[in-house]
Amino acid sequence: MGEPARRVAVTHPRTRAARPGRRGAVVRDVHEQTALGEVYVKALMRTQLRLGLLVCGAIILPLAALPPLLWYVPALHHARLWGAGLPWLLLGLPAHALLVVAGACYVRRTERHERDFAEHVHRS
Predict the structure, then answer these.
(1) What is the spatial distance between Cα 115 and Cα 67, in angstroms, rounded to a whole number?
(2) Is the pTM of this model over 0.85?
């Protein structure tokens, strides 16, 4: 029988343990607007743009579908509910609720993206 195997800690070269002098360099790259900092900021901007386009699509599609729906279904166009025309009620209540919910979701997701970005920058 030979001697027992020794335990060895294996670390990736990109971990903090492997590069102690690099701490805070990403923050410096972002603040000094170096090429690497620009890559990080552009990635955040792309994420925010993608989220903005997604929210705009989620708002525009239902609102754009409403006029054709009212045009092709005349019963909806002439229907009355609580003394008001159904088209006005559809444009008033659900449309504004959609805008408020989409705005709240957008703000929450944007803040989460920015928080993740800040954590990543300060962690690196």
Answers:
(1) 39
(2) no
